[in-house]
Amino acid sequence: MYKMRPRFLCNSLPAGLMLGFFVFLLRPVSTQKNRTRMYFLDNRGSIVLNGTANAEKDTVVVWEWKPHSWKEIRISAFRRTGNSWTKDNAAGNLYPEMEVNPSTLDLTIDKPTFKWAGIFTLNQTEPRKQILKQYEIFGMKVEASSWRARLGSDVTLSCTISRLSDTVSLHWRPMDSSQTNRGNTDQIRLNNAVYLMFQRVTVQDGNLYVCEVRENGNILHTSNAGFTVYNDLYGWGYTLYRSSTGHSELHLDCSSNGRNYSRAEWTWSPYPLQQRKVIASAERSQPIIINVNGTNFVNRLVTSGKLFDGKDFNVRIVPVVFQDAGVYACYLEYNRFPIVDLITVKVIAEPSDAVTEGDTVTLTCSVSHDIGSMRLVWINGDGKRVGEKTLTRKEKSLSLVIQKAERGRGNWRCVLFDDDLPRLFVPYLEPSELQKSTGS
User: How far apart, in Å, are the Cα atoms of 364 and each of 64, 348, 421, 435?
Assistant: First the structure.
């Protein structure tokens, strides 16, 4: 199957690319135990952990490192001789990314990656044992499903921290306050990450977004990321993800930045891929003709109501149903503009009429088709991962049994991941919660 989702990782961005990507290191934060916290962006810049320049002769100190994900590691030992420190050769060699200043014992890590996150301690072992300095450095990683997106596509931003304590939280927010009320944007937190998901991006969406590390209302650190949205759709393709719920919409954007065209059409190849069908067409300066014969789009395929002006040929499907999955393509005359692979997701509860907290319910989350790198994750009302499955062509669903004791705890969400980034989540509200949300 044609796989339509260009992906550009931040580590491979070409110089001069028009996107905002910055990191601001706040002043080190000291805890009550005199542990200084520092933050770094994955594989960028350098970190300097201050050592000690003043010590008695024959003092022995050791730099030790306890990674967030590994066992404690002894980096190296140093002995004070005269006015400088001498490395203890028996202690082994430093890592290539590390350098220690022989005068001050400052430890520098060049372009630290996620693995370096952890607690670094400068311990004095002779003539008496004591902690001289201690740092906890947190790795931050910001990624995007696409740093260079196309008009109408979906984009997910992720912000991950190497360790997340109970008092610390991650939050995305737009740099420009005017973007705060944008629709079709979801934010979801899972484990040590927060994700910001956009549906149908516009050129105005391609601005800076801020990932904040907060503790007790205070901002400890910010990492900024921005993506660029291009409105040139000629020859491009991408994947969209939609749920089959009453409020879900599919916008099919097709426009020309150049000349005018005499005719246009949208086609649909239902999944599993079958012969394509023309679902909308128009001649220049004429109304758009909707053709729903042999399809399930009756009363759901909507146009702007305007005449085709030779450039813009946009339609939308509302609401989206599970059977809408497939490949949509726009042609202006014989020129193919965007081609869209629509993946649909649905959640079914069995029994569907379980209305009391004493009932056991089985939730099944299903995906229309797999494109080779997708998985489903169930998250409970506390935001904890309670089920996960990698999808295949044959295995495209994940079930979750809600026991009697778990009823009445709010909502569950099925999250669709593609290339390790969430692209869509479908909530299941219990009948009691659904009544609260609708006010009935």
Answer: 48, 5, 21, 22
Contacts of 136 (CB under 8 A, 6+ apart): 35, 36, 37, 38, 118, 119, 120
CA distance 49 to 27: 13
Which residue carries 């549906």 as its tokens? 199
Of residues 165 and 178, which shows the higher confidence score? 165
Residue 399's Cβ-count burial label (10 Å; 0-12, 13-18, 19+) is middle
Cβ–Cβ contacts within 10 Å for residue 421, how many?
19
The structure tokens 């990450």 sit at: 193
Instruction: Quickly state the pLDDT bin for 348 (edges 50, 70, 90).
Output: very high
Please state the rounded mean pLDDT for residues 297-308. 86
Residues 6+ apart with CB under 8 A from 243: 320, 344, 345, 346, 347, 424, 426
Name the residue with tokens 């954007």. Answer: 253
* Residue 411 pLDDT: 76
pTM of the model: 0.82
- Between CA 161 and CA 159 the distance in angstroms is 7
Q: Quick check: 11 and 151 in contact, CB under 8 A?
A: no
Alpha helices in 176-322 (DSSP H): none
Cα distances (angstroms) measured from residue 425 to each of 147, 240, 310, 421: 21, 13, 37, 11
Give Cβ neighbours of residue 272 (< 8 Å, ≥ 6 apart): 369
Cβ-in-10-Å burial (0-12, 13-18, 19+) of 110 comes to exposed
pLDDT, position 9: 33
Give the distance, in angstroms, between the CA of residue 190 and the centroid of all CA atoms in the same chain.
Answer: 10
- What distance in Å separates the CA atoms of residue 257 and residue 237, rounded to the nearest whole number? 17
Question: pLDDT by residue (tens digit) across 114-155?
Answer: 888 999 999 888 888 889 999 999 999 999 999 999 999 999
